[in-house]
Write a structure and sequence with these properties.
- The chain is α+β, with helices and mostly antiparallel strands and 52 residues long.
- The protein has one domain.
- Helices cover 23% and strands 52% of the residues.
- It contains 1 helix and 3 strands, in the order H-E-E-E.
- It has a 3-stranded antiparallel sheet with strand order 1-2-3.
- Strand 2 and strand 3 form a beta hairpin.
- The longest helix has 12 residues.
- It is flat and about 45 Å long.
């Protein structure tokens, strides 16, 4: 089944953003997990990672 166009465009935007990190875990050619980390600028110029 082809990916939903809206999901594909969001994935492309996240992939182009250097403050977004995405990880897909596979086992025996099956996706078993995923992780997204967003790096944000917080108070006093400190960088922070937030996972979803």
């Amino acid at each position: 089944m082809p990916p939903n166009e809206r999901c594909a465009s969001v994935f492309d935007a996240l992939s182009a953003d250097p403050n977004q990190y995405q990880l897909v875990a596979e086992r025996k050619d099956h996706v078993v997990g995923c992780l997204q980390i967003t790096i944000t600028l917080v108070r006093l110029g400190t960088w922070r990672g937030q996972n979803f």
